[in-house]
User: What shape does this take?
Amino acid sequence: MKAIVSTKYGSPDILELKEVENPVPNDHEVLIKVFATTVNRTDTATLRGKPFLARLVTGMFKPKKPILGSEFAGKVEGVGKSVSSFKIGDNVFGFNEDGFGSHAEYMTISADKALTTIPENISYEQAAASTEGAHYAYNFINKVDLKRGQKVLVNGATGAIGSAAVQLLKYFGANVTAVCNTKNIDLVKSQGADKIIDYMKEDFTKEKQKFNFIFDTVGKSSFAKCLPLLESGGIYISSDLGYMAQNIFLPLITPIIKPMIGNKKTIFPMPTDCIGSVLLVKELIEKARFKAVIDRKYPLEEIVEAYKYVEKGQKTGNVVITIEHNNTA
Ligand SMILES: NC(=O)c1ccc[n+]([C@@H]2O[C@H](COP(=O)([O-])OP(=O)(O)OC[C@H]3O[C@@H](n4cnc5c(N)ncnc54)[C@H](OP(=O)(O)O)[C@@H]3O)[C@@H](O)[C@H]2O)c1
Assistant: This one.
């Protein structure tokens, strides 16, 4: 099969399109013929082996598996003998949180991981783009006790995480203020944001309104800068580690100093429950309450260009990789 291979950590230029052996599912796995995948920020981080701590999962000195790729959509082509939850011919999609396998014509994944059948109302491409950003977005939301009508500011509302966060927050009944670029105002409005701040014209940290939660889904702010915008008891969460990895340490410090800072705190959104995220996304797609934003599409053969584009940090939503199967093995 065709696959994109990387045997060391590095820039997109180390990626090679190669012919490799087809994977064989073990007793607990399904074999998937991949029709669409994505290049997302999880993949760019895995390619570079950054942050260094992530190498505990992805491999200390080189990627522990040579084929990267986390989101996928395709057709089940084989099942291990212990698998009863999927059958050959099922259209499936999901997110392989260990970051490997989907940048290839075929992949295997354990049937008890984060995959499910594709709703009938969407394409492989749409399905593939629906999981990574939504998983991280849901892992902001499930860290707080969000009540209907509470005010949430989403910075970076046009990224994979941000565009999913706006849609999920609206589904859960929040009042959403979204921060984005001028060119994406209509898009963010169409996703249901109640108020939009154009970061090209205004600094959202000068905002007079206060928020119960601030989700910086693009990691461009800091707890200190957002503190005045939080209601008493408010919570700040960022997708990035921040200056000197402060977003890892602040959750330990803010509970101690909270009487001095109006009972406000920050939480690190450690992602958990990947299966729950994928099942939630499926339910919302079926209810027409979630639609992944797709920016660009590239064929598998041009994945290096896709990585280079995604690494710029300027994609709108998601970048899809399409896979054509010429010799259907
Ligand atoms: N380490 C990991 O495994 C991992 C995994 C996933 C995500 N993350 C982190 O999570 C963050 C978000 O990921 P993502 O996939 O959602 O990002 P993304 O899709 O790459 O985000 C890009 C979006 O952010 C917007 N943006 C850029 N600068 C902005 C600013 N100053 N204010 C508001 N919006 C701005 C861009 O809009 P314009 O360019 O149009 O203005 C673009 O739409 C990234 O920082 C990434 O490093 C890390």
